[in-house]
Structures are given as C-alpha cells and as structure tokens.
C-alpha cells in the first residue's frame, strides 16, 4: 500500500473517530443534570421567559433535530453561540487554542531535550552512578503531581528567588516573532520565553521521566541485538553504533508515546494552566463548566479530539521513515 492510500484510509478512520467524539460530546449535555437555561435566565425569570430562552437556544426541538443542526453547524465552522459570553463559541475557542498548543509543544521539547540523552546514558552506563541518577529522576518525576511541582516552582523560583514571572503570558509566540522579524525587537520573544519556562517544566516533568524509562529499556534491548554486535565487530565507533543504529530502532515506541502524550498535553494541561493562570483551553473549559456554557465545553472537547486524531495519523506516517521494515499494511 502506498503512503498516499495509507494516509487516505487513516484519514477516513479519523473522521469516524471525530464523528464519534462529536456524538458523545453532544449527548453529554442531555445526560448531565441541570439545564443551560438555568444559567442564562435571570433568577426571577418567568416561565414564559424561560420558554423563550429555550427556543432561542434551540432546546425546544427534538434531540435528533438538535443533533443534525449541530453537525451541519460544525461543518460550516459554527460551534454555537455562547450566551454567557455573548460571542460565538468558535472564536473564543480558537483564540485560546494557540496558548495551549504553545505550552504543549514547549513541554514536549523540554521532555525530548532531557529524556532521550538521559535514557541513552542510563542504558550505555548500566549499573553506574549515571544510570542510578537517571532512574531515580524518572521515579521522582513520575511520582510528583503536576500541581504540587508548579506551586513549588512558583514559590522557590518566582517568589523566593525572583528569577521568573509567576503566571500568565502577556504576549503570544506569533506576536513575539512578528516583533523580532519586522521590528527587530527581542523583548517580545524574551518575555514569552520567561513566562513559558515554569509551565513547560511543570507540564513536561512527568513526560520527561516516562520517556527516560522508555528510552532506557528500548536501548538495553537494542544494544543486545546481533546487528549491534556485528557493527562493533566491524570497528564502527561506539557513538555511531549507539545513536545511528540502536537509538534509531528505539525511536518507534518513543515516537508513539510522544504523539499520544502530545495529544494528552493539549487536552490535559488543565491543572498546569490553572496553577499558572495560563490563558489556554484548560482554563477556558474549567470556567465554562462552572457556568454550564455548553457551546464552549462541546467545542473545546471536539477540538481536543481532533488534535488527538491528527497527531496519531502523523505518528503513523512517521513510522516507515524511521524503520523501513514497518509496512503500511
């Protein structure tokens, strides 16, 4: 099977998954106690006013009519209207999405920079102090809750030492890059980096610890394979054997976990965003749940689901690039 046919097939499968996510998210509103009318109508609203609000929200129609109207609206890019905020839900969600993507990608970069070298060193220096230090770090990193780590970093680094800011980014990455490119000012990118470090480290610590363990176990398995012994017998440098051959064959499970965890970071950065008052999807969903702003809740969950599907398709496409023995079948 060619790569194009594979991507088309996986895209069709992804569309089915997205459709399932949309259906579940839509039904979630009907199985959750309470009504959106309760949060839109005044406390002293009359039954007539409540009925009119229900009509404006489309809640008076049968559930199947609401479902197909919602599907057709999504096809047009319409996620509904947030009566709580007085704005279309799609605009609100898309305005918050870049902050979450920036945080998730930054946390992933932090994890890759530290985890893979630590995992390789731990495997090549087995039962040495480096190995013990790496495995101890991975154990501590996996066991440490994100919210506690974030609070400790704020107290020590920001409040105690006064090195980095505590919360909320005043500028996004794109505006900072525009200032750098068009105005030759580094203040924007410097501010963005300063506000990004603590949240990225907080969110990426668990991720880093997990990849360290995965890299170490994969490298130990690959370093014992016959092709590694043959490469060493040919006199190839140990660095070439370790990084070009053994690490390359270890990367497939690592890439899989990286893709899955990147999707998880996009959807699961709620606690970290809350601790650092980060203006992303996580804090938006929390605020929307408190006031039962269903268009925002549904739209954000659908965007997160689409992100998972796209990332998984990209990961599958990378497999054959890393290891030609992997077939598209």
TrEMBL record:
Domain ABC transmembrane type-1: 97-319
Predominant localisation class: membrane
Keywords, alphabetical: Cell membrane, Membrane, Transmembrane, Transmembrane helix, Transport
UniProt-annotated location(s): Cell membrane
Gene Ontology cellular component list: plasma membrane
SUPFAM superfamilies (alphabetical): MetI-like
GO BP terms in the entry: transmembrane transport
A Pfam family annotated for this UniProt entry: BPD_transp_1
Membrane topology: Multi-pass membrane protein
InterPro entries: BPD_transp_1_N, MetI-like, MetI-like_sf
Family that this chain belongs to: Belongs to the binding-protein-dependent transport system permease family.
Protein name stated in the entry: ABC transporter permease
């Amino acid at each position: 099977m060619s790569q194009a046919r594979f991507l088309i097939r996986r895209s069709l499968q992804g569309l089915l998954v997205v459709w399932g996510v949309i259906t579940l998210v839509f039904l979630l509103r009907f199985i959750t106690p309470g009504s959106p009318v309760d949060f839109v109508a005044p406390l002293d609203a009359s039954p007539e006013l409540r009925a009119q609000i229900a009509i404006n929200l489309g809640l008076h129609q049968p559930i199947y009519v609401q479902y197909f109207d919602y599907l057709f609206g999504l096809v047009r890019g319409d996620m509904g209207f947030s009566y709580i905020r007085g704005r279309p839900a799609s605009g609100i969600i898309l305005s918050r999405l870049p902050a979450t993507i920036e945080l998730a990608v930054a946390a992933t970069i932090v994890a890759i920079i530290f985890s893979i070298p630590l995992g390789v060193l731990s495997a090549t220096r087995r039962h040495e102090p480096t190995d013990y230090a790496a495995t101890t770090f991975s154990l501590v990193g996996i066991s440490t809750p994100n919210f506690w780590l974030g609070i400790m970093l704020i107290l020590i680094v920001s409040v105690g030492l006064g090195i980095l800011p505590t919360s909320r980014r005043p500028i996004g990455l794109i505006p900072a890059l525009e200032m750098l490119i068009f105005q030759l000012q580094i203040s924007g990118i410097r501010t963005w980096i300063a506000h990004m470090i603590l949240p990225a480290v907080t969110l990426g610590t668990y991720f880093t610890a997990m990849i360290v363990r995965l890299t170490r176990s994969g490298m130990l398995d690959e370093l014992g394979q016959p092709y590694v012994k043959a490469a060493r017998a040919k006199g190839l440098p140990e660095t070439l054997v370790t990084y070009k051959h053994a690490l390359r064959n270890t990367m497939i499970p690592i890439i899989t976990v990286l893709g899955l965890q990147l999707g998880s970071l996009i959807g699961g950065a709620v606690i970290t965003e809350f601790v650092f008052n980060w203006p992303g999807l996580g804090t938006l969903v929390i605020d929307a749940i408190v006031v039962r702003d269903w268009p925002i809740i549904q739209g954000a969950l659908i965007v997160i689901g689409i992100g998972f599907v796209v990332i998984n398709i990209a990961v599958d496409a990378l497999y054959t690039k890393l290891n030609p023995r992997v077939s598209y079948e």
